[in-house]
Amino acid sequence: MLYIQSIVVYTLLALLMCLGAYYSKRDVPMAKLWGWMPIVLFTLVFGLRYGVGVDYNNYVEIYEETASYNSFFSMWENERYEAGFIILLYICHLVHAPVFVLFSIIAFIQIYLLYKAFKDEGDILVFLYATFIFTGFC
User: Fold this and answer.
1) pLDDT of residue 38
2) Angle at the Cα of 17 from the Cα atoms of 125 and 45, rounded to 5 degrees
3) Mean pLDDT in runs of 10 for the chain (138 residues)?
4) Which is nearest to 125 in space by CA: 55, 42, 24?
5) Cβ-contact 18, 35 below 8 angstroms
6) Where does residue 90 rank: exposed (0-12), middle (13-18), buried (19+ CB within 10 A)?
7) What is the three-state SS of 42-109?
8) How far is it, in rounded angstroms, from Cα 56 to Cα 60?
9) Scanning 35, 38, 74, 78, which has the fewest C-beta atoms within 10 Å of its C-beta?
10) Are 99 and 60 in contact (CB under 8 A)?
C-alpha cells in the first residue's frame, strides 16, 4: 500500500510542478504565483516527509546528536560534515526547530536553486522538474 501511495504522491507532485512551470511561462493571470507553486509544493512534500528514504533516520540521528553543542565552532571542530550543513544544523538548533524544518530548508534550497538556474530557459523547466523527481535527484 505504501508503494502505491508513494507512486501517487510523487506523480501528482511532478504533474503539479510541471503544470506550475508551464503556466508560469505563459501570459496568464498570476503567472508569478504559478512559478512559485512548484517550489512551495516540493518544499512541503519533501520537508514534511516522515520515515521516507533510506537516509531519513540518519539525518534525524545527526540532528539529535548535534543538539548538545553549545556553539557553532564546537560543532565545526567535532563533526565531519560540510560547512553549509553545519550552518543549517546550528541555525535550526538555535531556534529550537523540529527536524522537519531542517528537511524543509534543504528541500527549499534544492528546488529554488534549480529554478533560479533554469528560469529563463523557456519550457525546459517543465521537463526538468519531472526529471528531478523521477530520477532520484531529490
Assistant:
1) 92
2) 130
3) 80 91 85 90 90 85 88 84 90 94 94 88 81 74
4) 24
5) no
6) middle
7) HHHHHHCCCCCCCCHHHHHHHHHHHHHCCCHHHHHHHCCCCHHHHHHHHHHHHCCCCHHHHHHHHHHH
8) 6
9) 78
10) yes
